[in-house]
Amino acid sequence: MNLETNIRKLAMTKHWQNVYVTSQKCSCIRMFENDFNYSGLQTRFLYWLSVYEMLYSELSTYEDDLLTLEVLDDEDRTDAYLIYRNKKQDFLWKQHRAEEKKSQLKAIEKRILKIQVKKLRLMSILGEKNKHGKFSR
After folding, report:
1. What are the sequence ranges of the domains in the chain?
2. In angstroms, how far is the first alpha carbon of the chain from the final one?
3. 3-state secondary structure of 1
4. Is residue 114 within 8 Å of 108, Cβ to Cβ?
5. pLDDT tens digit string along 12-48?
6. How far is 37 from 113, CA to CA, in rounded Å?
7. Is residue 135 within 8 Å of residue 123, measured between CB atoms?
8. pLDDT in tens, 44-100
9. pTM recorded for the entire structure
10. Most distant pair of Cα atoms in the chain: their distance
11. Alpha-carbon gap, residue 20 to 12, rounded angstroms
């Protein structure tokens, strides 16, 4: 087993997940002796703690049928799921942005239509245009 695998296995244990979640809620619980200037190993461990905490939270809410304990027990399947999840989120974000833009365009079209209606009313009040494009009084 390589170092990254060991870090991941440790980060997914109930003990370290509980310590991590509790330390997020209560500043009196420290993950490490140092509070800053984390080493590379500490940084990797915190990264995987947060990843597994997120995945366990999603698993408990049944958000995605593809996420199972069997997936989390297999590093390769977990990595594949994370790639899938990232692509899914990118797609949903792009879809949301497209819907926002569509909504903004509709709002702009409504404003333009209101301006055109006001312009037509103003033109009818001021009189008709003559053949040279000027208003007659």
Report:
1. 1-63, 67-137
2. 91
3. coil
4. no
5. 999 999 999 999 899 888 888 888 899 999 999 999 9
6. 59
7. yes
8. 999 999 999 999 999 999 888 899 999 999 999 999 999 999 999 999 999 999 999
9. 0.69
10. 91
11. 10
